Amino acid sequence: MEAIREKRSWQLNGFFMFGVFLILIYWEWALAVNFDIAKGLQAGIWWIGLAIACIMLGGFIVVQPNEARVIVFFGKYVGSISTSGFSWVNPLTLKKKVSLRIHNLNSETLKVNDLMGNPIEIAAVVVWRVVDTAKALFDVENYQQFVKIQCETAIRTLATQYPYDSEDKKESLRGSQSEVSENLRKQVQARLEIAGIEVLETRITHLAYAPEIAQVMLRRQQAEAIIAARKRIVEGAVGMVEIALNMLGEKKIIHLDDEKKATMINNLLVALVSEHEVTPVLNTGTLYS
Predict the structure, then answer these.
(1) Dihedral (Cα; 249, 254, 259, 264), 10-degree rounding
(2) Within a domain: residue 125?
(3) Residue 146 contacts by C-beta under 8 Å, 6 or more apart in sequence?
(4) Strands (E), the chain
(5) Confidence of residue 278 (pLDDT cuts 50, 70, 90)
């Protein structure tokens, strides 16, 4: 494939050339008034001047801010014009418009499998712009369609490289969105380099388990949360029991043998870990009648 890179096209000030065009029109009008244009040399000059004036009209272009015109002369790329304003170029060329503005691509919600094989739904937004107009027009068939397809392909590839969630604090789609977004940006940029596209930002906009496993995974997450909470409660309760035994021993409030310590530890753990309020039982001694 022929390698084409953007270059600046030759151009003239549009207002200057419009003045030349007006002078030519005035000269044509003067010939028509003062001479018989139906015959003779004057007729030939008049018709040549009229043809030149008509051709000149095709060279005037207006370039808006953050817009470019790609100039093609009989199938050959001659350059691009990205300077906004009124210009005049070779009127025999094609002038293709390319937007240099920033674009947002909201991908469709894609159903893929994550690293663990779980079906998930994922979507992303990609912020991009054209930085090389020649590559965008001549290296790919349709650069906007190319951006859409390559972004969706990159999102599918990214989803298979991470688990949806991670229990051991490793990178995951849900827990490491900054790192995942940056990785997605690099992957999309590598795919769009051939089309002269710069990727400014990528973000995950939708992430969820597929409907067929959503309820199961929700119960799993709830169970993991309960287990983690229970673990924290038990760790706290053991620490409180240890503090209580140490304080009783240091202040010599009461002497506990191993059996009594075991009973006390059991009662404290039950009181601290239980989900319900504990009803204390008071030992008031034995009554004799």
Answers:
(1) -80
(2) yes
(3) 140, 192, 195
(4) 12-13, 60-63, 67-73, 76-81, 85-88, 94-99, 103-106, 110-113, 119-130, 197-209
(5) low
Tens digits of per-residue pLDDT, 24-82?
Answer: 888 888 777 766 555 566 677 778 888 888 999 999 999 999 999 999 999 899 999 99
Which of 209, 242, 261 is the last residue in one of the domains? Answer: 209
The pLDDT of residue 264 is above 70? no
CA 60 to chain centre: 38
- Angstrom CA distances, 26 to 31, 33, 48, 193, stand at 9, 11, 14, 51
Q: Name the domain count of the chain.
A: 3
Question: What is the rounded CA–CA span in Å between residue 127 and residue 195?
Answer: 15
* Residue whose structure tokens are 């030992």: 283
Token representation of residue 70 = 């790609």
Residue type, 100: L
Enter the tokens of residue 109.
């919600």
Within 10 Å of residue 53's Cβ, how many Cβ atoms?
A: 16
Q: Does the residue 283 lie in any domain?
A: no
Instruction: Supply the CATH number for residue 195's domain.
Output: 3.30.479.30
